[in-house]
């Protein structure tokens, strides 16, 4: 796949991950600050969710590039990297899920590159990949402590498809972290036109 340029951010491009992927992951900070937990509700926009203030802390998921090594050369998955002025600043891992949807296994943007259209550009490329494979849509998971990501998915046309209050209880029985499943359905777009 050729580099995809973003006219709103001229220095931003997305291309297939290369041999520099591992070093890029190990050398960057993908953490984010958590200060609220949202209470997701089906049928309500993210900005309408009740929120609970919590003492601020940094959240990091501990990205391991080895986890996705086999995704780079497989027919049913891909890894794309975003570059801002030729510096690697984000990545997305997408695969074909068991239910036929494209599954965004991971989406991350380095701290200083946020708010530059990087995550949206990566989602757009993953959507192009998914449509090219004639998949019915895309799905992904985030959590109620990452409302910025939830707002992004909502702006990009994703809808809330499910909420799992127990998913993370095995890790921490006292957690307030809730899994939120988002879907972008392509067929419904075609039916509206």
From TrEMBL:
Entry keyword annotation includes Acyltransferase: yes
Q: Which GO terms describe its molecular function?
A: acyltransferase activity, transferring groups other than amino-acyl groups
Its keywords, alphabetically, are:
Acyltransferase, Transferase
Note whether Iron occurs among the keywords: no
**What domain of life is recorded for the organism?**
Bacteria
Pfam families with a match to the protein in the record? Acetyltransf_1 (PF00583)
Task: Tell me which positions the record assigns to the signal sequence.
Answer: none
**Annotated N-acetyltransferase domain residues:** 41-187
This one is known as Acetyltransferase (GNAT) family protein
Its taxonomic path starts at: Bacteria, Pseudomonadati, Pseudomonadota, Gammaproteobacteria, Pseudomonadales
